[in-house]
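Purpose: get a first structural picture of the assembly so the mutagenesis plan has something to point at.
Setup: two entries, given in the order below. No constraints added.
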Amino acid sequence: MHNNKCLKENPNPNPNQPLLAYHFIQALTRINLTAHTTTSTKQRSHIIKHAAYVSMAFAAGNKRTWTHAVLLHNRFPLKTRFHRLSGSRRSFIMSLSRNKKTHRHAHLLRSLVPGGHAMEFSSLLMETANYIQYLTAQVRLMQCIVEKFDMHV
Amino acid sequence: MQPCSREMQAMALQELQIAAHDDFFDQMLSSLPPSWPDLGNPKSPWDLAGKPQDDPAGEYPPYDESSLLASRLRQHQISGGGGSGGSPAEKSMGLHLAQHQQMMLAAGMGRSSPVGAGDGGLIPMPLSLGNGGSSDSRLLLDRSRDEVDAAFKPPNSTGSEGIYNGFSSGSAQRMAQAANQQHFQGSPVPSQSFGAAPPSSGNTTTQAAAAPPRQRVRARRGQATDPHSIAERLRRERIAERMKALQELVPNANKTDKASMLDEIIDYVKFLQLQVKVLSMSRLGGAAAVAPLVADVSSEAGRGGGGGSGGSDSLAVTEHQVAKLMEEDMGSAMQYLQGKGLCLMPISLASAISSATARTTSSLIPSSLNHINSNNNNGGVGAGINGGDGPSSPSMSVLTVQSAMGAGSDTMKDAASVSKP
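Result (structure tokens, whole complex):
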């Protein structure tokens, strides 16, 4: 019953679950082959986490800003290219959102969602929705894998 | 003489409009919301407005009327922020203005210029607009009054502050003076402020500050020429609909407040990212066995109800494993549990949580189990506390490891339970 629910349920059509699984498992096997025993536990968990995000971005396709940011960060881990909004537009938008609370929320959200600094608030919300969808799908996938592994122990 | 003053008024008005863009708009918009209670107040203006209806209306095309309406509304709202105090006096003056305007229109009826057409279109508007006509006529009256103020202000002040000051003080004198000129104002700006009405009226719905005692028309009319107000309105609508879409995604969707909803969204994103991190840590042991899993994944997908019994078995296995580990070393036991996405908690807490989840809806669970690792959609196993809410509701199965506690560690004197949320 776990397995069914893990793999089958997908109320919203957007996250393509088999594609997610394919990419993630591919990444895992690659990790398993390359960095087997040389890396420490912490390093390996970091690598796996990174692989999770990258496979998530792959499965999500190229239409989303956050996928761009994730893949870009993957390729150039130290290079942070800030595509900030242009000055006039940004000041206009910031003048509109005079509410300090929403501005704080927006800033927090921008820091959470990858690539959030380069977007306006409305598109940021859209990106967040998509990001949450894929995050939940990824988490479910990883839980399924963990469970399956435990059953074979 | 008349053309000169008209041009002057036109220039003044244009200046006014140009100046009235950004900061001014905020003040304006904050003061806009609505004088809806005042809609019912003046009966007499409405009676007076009945008189203009007698004029021949059919000569003028409707779009001229609406353009004039837009211009009136714009000037009305430009000066709208200033004068909440002097409204009763203003209303009476508005009556005079309406009468005066009517006279001017009658004088200008024969003109074929757009001025006359625009002005002539103003009065017959109550006739043509039907249901909305009543509020429109009041708006016209207000606008006519405001036009006076707006006309008078440019000579006196350049900034927004000046407009407010000018409006509140001594408007009575200016009314008489500007009454002669007020009807010229509509003409120069019909095309410009044609669209100013809808965004302004649309903005009245979005702001909720102190209301000036005027009537406002909320109906949208045609396009808006002012880009900032359009953009702002569109932006707010987009944000609202996207917040609604997000609300469906995030589990705790019962918040109506935008700020708390945003808080919830942020917390949920953090929680999901934390889950990914923890699950990637647990994947360490399993990374070695991933390859055989690839084949198994596809085979497991087709399997039917085997998961239920398998689930209970796995939990029992887990239980024994944890018990064994706890005898040796608490740290390894915790690590083992953590790898599985489980946690250790006192039985009292577990029973409290399970009883709470049995009673309440599943929305309670994600918040209470935020610090517990996995959020799995499980079939009810063990204690059987499954709400049965559907595929998306997490349920809890609680196992007790009381048997292991006899030989257990010092820190866990109380009975502990292994709970898999």
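Chain A has seven helices and no strands.
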